[in-house]
Amino acid sequence: VVTVSATQVPLVTELPGRVEAARSAQVRARVTGIVQKRLFREGSDVKANQPLFQIDPAPYQAALGSAQAQLQRAQAQAGQAKALVERYRPLREANAISQQEFTNAQAAQATAEADVAAARAAIQTAQLNLGYATVRAPISGRIGRALVTEGALVSQAEATQLAVVQQIDPALINITQPMGDLRRLREQIASGRAERSDRVPVEVMGEDGQPLGLRGQLLFSDLSVDPATGQVLLRAEVPNRNLQLLPGQYVRVRVAQATLQQALLVPQQAVTRGTQGDTLFVVGTNNQPQQRPVKIGSAQNGQWLVLEGLKPGERVIVDGFQKMRPNAPVNPVPWSGPASAAQGNPAAAGQSAAQGGTPAAA
User: Fold this and answer.
1) C-beta of residue 258 within 8 angstroms of C-beta of residue 12
2) Which terminus has fewer CB within 10 Å in the chain: N or C?
3) Is residue 213 helix, strand or coil?
4) What is the DSSP string of 11-64?
5) How many Å apart are CA 176 and CA 222, to the nearest integer?
6) Which helix (H) or strand (E) holds 124?
7) CA atoms of 168 and 213, how far apart (whole Å)
8) Over the stretch 99-136, which tens digit does the pLDDT of each residue have?
């Protein structure tokens, strides 16, 4: 037997999740032209602002030269208009010309200065387009395959997608939890039986349930419930230095959302699970075994968390079930672990009971 006692236990829940990149950027064409070069190796790590593709820059170099010529022309006209205003100013003060002529000269100067500003803006636009001919990485991360090849025509109007860059260290995991489980957790916290954790740790396991050795923490719980599934989205962040997790990968995640203040744990082999419910045996009065229905929670390191049906101080039978007889008392022996089944004392006690001696060990 083991004598159960109340202890603080993290309330661990195992939930399904999908891996998502922390940041994902689609590399798209911002100008129209023919792709001349691919400047990266597919599947490699790239840095932000690193050149990825070279689009034919010749049309945009010509557009920049034209814009620069327009600026020079506008500047010349602005200088002429300014000189005319300066000549007219003393003449107007001497009433040698009309106010209308002087006003027209000032308007011409303002128009010429506006043309200069427009020409400068045209140069900036041309420089931007020329810069966009060299397609650069928007973020640092790992780039996938190229979606276009040299010689392909890419379009600004269609924003042709060229590649995808993703940051997967750290990785994000989108976890789904039934709303019913979240509601029961909140009820336990409200009643004082559980205490919410400030930092919620998570442990990642593979599809087969084997731990991957990756641990992180919960970032947030969504405020809405998916009407199609009745589940709430949780998001965790996990360091992924060895790139064990890939976007879209299915994983299992253990989440410790709260700590039970008065938790009862029993070895898993003490509980019988069936379609009619979970049961275990306790040693009652006069050392009589009594079957007890219980409500089981999550598994904790080879033990079941008992939510209902058991009290602190009760003795739970873990081993020796085959030696029990109906309406016969047992001789409780402390259980120290799986090796206790191979020890001589419990077996000897069982043999004595079978021969009509002392009660069987449980």
Assistant:
1) no
2) N
3) strand
4) EEEEEEEEEEEEEEEEEE-SS-EEEEEE-S-TT-EE-TT-EEEEE--HHHHHHH
5) 10
6) helix 99-132
7) 17
8) 999 999 999 999 999 999 999 999 999 999 999 999 99
